[in-house]
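User: Round two. Same drill as before: sequence, then structure, for each protein.

Assistant: Same drill it is. First protein:
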Amino acid sequence: MCTTMSFYVLTKWLTSISLLAQFYMMAKIYAEGELLWGVHQLGGVINEFVMRCILPQNFINSKVFLFLYWWYILAILVSLYSAFQFSALLLVPRYQRYSIKALLPTPEFFGEQAGADQHNVLPGDSDPHEYFADYLGFVLFWYCLKLAIQKIFDY
């Protein structure tokens, strides 16, 4: 296992835990621990809870906290999805191969780039995707990911 990847996955999980803790603290302070406060607000149940401050009476502050409530839920869902995805990438070799193959150009691309007089440098009739996934593996995945990110931000 790659130490850098393990550390990266750990930070993904710590981010998720941090978001969950922040969401719980916001619900504990603002709605006395009622985690479904935002759902009740959208459903029309207003001022059902005994609040510690006068924020629910202030319309603007109430809407700001309602926005933050749903923002935290979105951030938690995205963070958990990312943590599960990278955990699977770290721990499941079959998913690693799939991810590597997804980032590689197709064999048709190799043929177009080499032209009609292409020479196969790979042993036998092996597929370039299989060769790269088998022999270069995880290192190639990070390199392809780096190239993809550079291509996205290269204007």
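Second protein:
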Amino acid sequence: MTINFFEHQDTVAQNLITFIRLKGYSKLSLSKLTGISRPTIDQILKCESPNQTTYNAQITKINEVFGLREDFFLTAQPVAFSPALPFYAFSDHGSGSERSPQARELLEGLDNVLDIYSMYLK
């Protein structure tokens, strides 16, 4: 079964946001886990993906990484998840060699908090 997710961008975005919240991921951690760039994750969540083929491949990749059914993001459903393990990734902005390890850790934590906050802001 091949689904054209591009035709259902609003539904996919809403269900992906719910999935991210329930798993406790940030957009950055989702990006690192899936190999999909952070700006592209933003496009998916804002329903602004310009290319149908690429969009469909990206949603398929997310499903595969997490072992989800192909139509998972097309249907709203109650899902019980175990708490996500912490996932840390440093920002690629600025020159990391000038910051102490403690400063990098604090900025990374702040970046993740801001990502999560931005998802609840709407």
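Residues 5-120 form a domain with the 434 Repressor (Amino-terminal Domain) fold (CATH 1.10.260.40).

User: Perfect.
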